[in-house]
Protein 1
Amino acid sequence: MNNYEFTLVLANIHDFDEQLVDRIFEVGCDDASLLTRNGVVYLDFDREAASFSEAVWSAIRQVESIAQPKIRVDSIQPDDLVTVSEIARRIQKSREYVRLLINGERGTGNFPLPISGMSQKSMIWSWSRVSQWLFKHDLVSEEQVAIAQEIADINQYLFHRDHWLEFNQRMKKIEARLLTV
């Protein structure tokens, strides 16, 4: 068994009281702290489990089993979206080191492209893509890559779960357009 640290951001909750803390504890989340920041309520977990996936999914099931108030998990943190500073923090290197990797002045080049922010001051990358590249250059572990991908996948699921059929139909239309071009 390993310990996994992660955060569940909660939807439908804007503040909390002792009753909610008790309910969260009663459903088995005695390994979490209920916190709020800028009006966002979240649970910080330090969960023991056989795998990261098991830790996260068991926490989501427990939290969402609370009937009153009905809680939905909005996302998992740390998020897949990262800046240069966040990449540097996650690999315990300087921002300058990461900038050199990005620009191909260090390493083998071909750093993943940013997914957003090209016309702004700060660009955004996908941590799951960046971690795969970093793994090939011995800067992160295989487990870190797997966890990054798991977080990205779960967050996509959580984002689309209420509209999954509609989303799937839109993706099929896009795919059909791509195949006819």
Protein 2
Amino acid sequence: MAAKGTTDFIEGRLGGVLYDTTKLGRLEGYLGRRGVTLQVGDEFLPLGKAGGFDAVNGRLALKSNPTEYEVWHELNHYIQYRKLGPEAYSAQGRIAKEQYVFDALENSPKRWGALTPEQRTHAVDYIYAVGGIR
């Protein structure tokens, strides 16, 4: 388990397309080559959480049988981390991190269009709940 305050979590499960297991294996290799451990399994997350990215400890955790939405959400946290670097990423508040993820999903017609209506609603509600929306 990550130290308190170091992990950005996504909550709940909203259905949708499961992430392809072959792609999950490739993602594990991609992240591993960059020093990030991919953990897949309910035991890696607190109850009620579907995924989390821990930049401090280099871990990206997903529930068992993750959906595309869950993977894309957490992967975008990692992508922002890679772009900014550890110090700048860690200096950001939660709103900026979640806004980046929301914008990345919403600005990708392929990914946004692949989400279920429930997932899109969750994404919008979530970004408002954390205080973002540009």
